[in-house]
Amino acid sequence: MNEIAWERRCVLGALLALAALPGAQAQSADLVAVVAANSKAPPKLSAEELSAIFMGTAKSFPNGERAVPIDQKAGTPPYAGFYQKAAGKTEAQMKAYWSRIMFTGKGQPPQEGGDGAAVKKLVAANPNMVGYIEASLVDASVRVIADIK
């Protein structure tokens, strides 16, 4: 076997090993944006509206109600998956984005709420908060306002 073929086999093996990691599948989990069941937020948000809230360019829902975004823990598959799908940015790009925004004094990143269950609990208790969780965690305490695709 020549050197190029060997390198290709090594790269392929590494990719297969990464795909088998538990976190690799979690990123593909269906994510939804949620608000409290009693929130006055609109019934649905567009991808652009949701992105604007989490990127700090919108401070309220389209109907004028205050919006407080809550992130899952940075470095987790849901965090990376959300920003990749909602804003088209990698985790590294988000870190650079917020570093620039904070340096210029133009804003702060969303508060970190923990894992999906913790975010759901925070959002359910505050009608102004909006977060993203795995679709399997949705129950009567929260209302889905956007599918993250």
From TrEMBL:
It comes from the Bacteria. Residues 1-26 form the signal peptide. Keywords: Signal. SUPFAM superfamilies: Periplasmic binding protein-like II (SSF53850). This is Phosphate ABC transporter substrate-binding protein. It comes from Inhella proteolytica.
